[in-house]
Amino acid sequence: MNMRKNLCKAVLGCIFSLAGVLLLSACGSSGASDLHEAEGYYFDTDVELKINDKNGEALLKKCFSLCEELENTFSPSSSSSELYKINRRTSDTVTVSDDMADCLEEALTWCSRTDGAFDITIYPVSSLWDFRSGKTEIPDEAAIDSALAKVDYTKVHLDGNELTFDSPDTMLDLGGIAKGYASAKIKKMLKEEGVSSALINLGGNVSTLGLKSSGTKWTVGIQKPFADRGETLTTVKSSDSCVISAGIYERYFEKDGKLYHHILDPKTGYPKETDLNQATVISTDDAMSDALSTICILYGQEKAEEFIKSQGLDVTVLFTDKNNNITWFPEESSDLSAS
Amino acid sequence: MKRNDWILIAVLTLIPAILLTGNIIAAQKIASPCLVITVDGSTFGIYDLNEDRIIDINGKNTCTIKDGEASMTYADCPGQNCVHSAAIGKEGGSIVCLPNRVILKIENAAVTAERPDAVTG
């Protein structure tokens, strides 16, 4: 009988040890990394978030609700958004939200610094063009001319949260800066929540916080223009910085052998003739990188370099020319270069 | 020992053995890269990359798995960005059809130094 008891004890001991091993392995597989990832749809694009934090799931939700809030501020097409209402105002002066005021202040600075080469009042023109539906329609010349007459950022004045328009037909399009503003705001929130490692990707506007869980910098691929999405030209390293590209390949159509892309010249109302396929701006200021990437395309490489120098901007730019050759400006840095 | 003792030993050793085997198989299943399709945030299906097949996604998109890679071979959306996205394989990545809210994503991607964490542009 004793022998039987001992036997039972021995076998039960084995079972418990095995159960312990199984339990440990289960814990090990789920606890090895606190990386939480999710994708969503905001700002008319796909949003990808990676957060290394034990509260990752709750923080992902918080990020997405912030995206929703900001989309409801900056969307030009959603009838419930603040921008939509501003564009269809009934009075010359509108009181705007803090986010709208902050983003507008930054945006108007770039309009002024570029003397209107970058102009957020381009909405009457940009709303005529359709680069998304697959149609290849060039807007009527008379319609473009009439819309162009409404484009002038100097008719917009911001004083605190008071936004005043000199003209009733001035309409705003913050597409060139709002995503940069949004990623900066998401990053700030995550920092305040104590997160030390995250990646925010708002439709190709990539912004990083800290290092990956492996202790290395995040790697960001640079899309190869006109190639399959996801095919990259090169890769850069990023930590507490943003990597934001603008390019003529992102939204475009071809008609009669000519390419019509979405980066419109506020002076002509047509896609800007440029020597660049793409410009990628790396900095610690997301809104600046967003605006500057578009400004680089609008200016072309030489003028963009002069502009960056004259403004004393602390940025690194990767210019991609029409042959998809990359030039670093001011120079390739080993901190950023992954190769 | 009596016959019942041997039966007891057999049962008591077999149970953990079965559990352990099941755990190992499950772990392998979880750990190998697979394709997860989501529609509007809900899982549509999980697929083995090693099995060539054509997946109809609600008549709006078609995903094709061939030679260990998944690609979007049809979409009824106007932009066709997803159809022009590079195929994704065991190294990871995702293909998004924004208008139809469809995401093809590789779970448990093989860790490779080459694959970036995100792509800009």
General description of the model:
The complex is a heterodimer of chains A (339) and B (121). With 339 residues, chain A is an alpha+beta fold. Chain A has a domain at 82-165: T-fold (Orthogonal Bundle). Chain A has helices spanning 2-31, 56-74, 82-87, 98-113, 123-126, 141-148, 178-192, 286-299, 301-311; strands at residues 35-42, 45-52, 93-95, 156-159, 162-165, 198-202, 205-209, 218-223, 232-238, 242-247, 252-255, 258-261, 276-283, 316-321, 326-329. Chain A has an eight-stranded antiparallel β-sheet with strand order 1-2-6-7-10-13-14-15. A three-stranded antiparallel β-sheet of chain A has the order 3-5-4, covered by helices on one side. The N and C termini of chain A lie far apart (72 Å). Chain B is of the alpha+beta class and 121 residues long. Chain B folds into two domains: 1-31; 33-121, Sandwich (mini-chromosome maintenance (MCM) complex, domain 2). Chain B contains one helix and eight strands, in the order αββββββββ. In chain B, the strands form two sheets. Chain B has a four-stranded antiparallel β-sheet with strand order 2-1-7-6, with no helix packed on it. A three-stranded antiparallel β-sheet of chain B has the order 3-4-5, with no helix packed on it. Chains A and B meet through helix 1, strand 1, strand 2, strand 8 and strand 10 of A and helix 1, strand 6 and strand 8 of B.
